[in-house]
Amino acid sequence: EAGVAQSPRYKIIEKRQSVAFWCNPISGHATLYWYQQILGQGPKLLIQFQNNGVVDDSQLPKDRFSAERLKGVDSTLKIQPAKLEDSAVYLCASSLSLSYEQYFGPGTRLTVT
Amino acid sequence: AQKVTQAQTEISVVEKEDVTLDCVYETRDTTYYLFWYKQPPSGELVFLIRRNSFDEQNEISGRYSWNFQKSTSSFNFTITASQVVDSAVYFCALSEAGAGNNRKLIWGLGTSLAVNP
Predict the structure, then answer these.
(1) Please, which of A20, A47, A104, B64 could form a disulfide with A57 given CB 3.0 to 4.6 Å?
(2) What's the maximum distance between 2 C-alpha atoms anywhere in chain A?
(3) Closest-CA distance of chain B to residue A101, Å
(4) B residues 66-85 lying closer than 8 A (beta carbon) to A
(5) Could you read off the pLDDT of A26-41 as tens digits, one per residue?
(6) Would you place residue A70 in the very low, low, confident or very high pLDDT band (cuts 50, 70, 90)?
(7) Mean pLDDT of A47-76
(8) Distance to chain A for B64, nearest Cα, Å
(9) How far apart are CA A37 and CA B53, in angstroms?
(10) Residues in contact with A51: Cβ distance below 8 Å, sequence separation at least 6, in sequence order
(11) Are B94 and B106 contacting, i.e. CB atoms less than 8 angstroms apart?
């Protein structure tokens, strides 16, 4: 069974530019998560989808971050405009449903200069 | 409020030693789930175990074992005969079974384990 796919794996942008990340979850997984992980810290949940509806986006900086999950499958996370403090690894995860174990993709390492 | 505490920030052991990673949690719910994840230097988070609050039976998987004690709100993880490949950051996490936002995963800060040859 294919795992969670993410692209790109690495991205370097200048501050104030925009960037988008893509995630394809494990087939059949209803719940999809985007996390931000800063070096040396644990994952921080940005947004959680159940099918194509948002369950939790309380920690998503909505003035610059946006995410969508069209048709309840793939998802994109966008940052516009980026700030230096957005430099982090962005992790996508999926699970069968809420409270089930989450399976993570390899992450996208973003560097904002 | 939910909370997960991993008091050990860093642990260093020599190969073949046994090591226990502590996890203490707080929750007001009677139904919840506990998890352990491993994050090796490559960076990808790997699911290790999920345990529901009604199942206090200890779990063993190869060299890994987990001890769940509701009386002390702990879900500790032991690696027996540690190997260099076990070097990673290990995260403990909690999810309540309620509706909506309560189902998000609450993560501990992680314990960095270094197994030296």
Answers:
(1) A47
(2) 38
(3) 6
(4) none
(5) 999 999 999 999 988 8
(6) confident
(7) 92
(8) 18
(9) 28
(10) A30, A69, A72
(11) yes
Quote the CA–CA distance of A26 and A93 in Å, as a whole number.
9
Which positions in chain A touch B97 (Cβ < 8 Å)?
Answer: 99
Six-digit token pair at B61? 């998987």
Give me the residue from B44, B95, B108 closest to A107, CB to CB: B44
Within 24-83 of A, beta carbons closer than 8 Å to B belong to: 41-43, 45, 48, 55-56, 58
Tokens of A110: 């973003």
Q: Residue B58: its pLDDT value, please? A: 87
Structure token pair of residue B15: 């190969």
Q: How far apart are the C-alpha atoms of A16 and A69, rounded to whole Å?
A: 24
Residue percentage of chain B with pLDDT more than 70: 96
Q: In the structure, how many helices (H) and strands (E) does chain B have?
A: 0, 12
Distance from CA of B18 to the nearest CA of A (A): 25
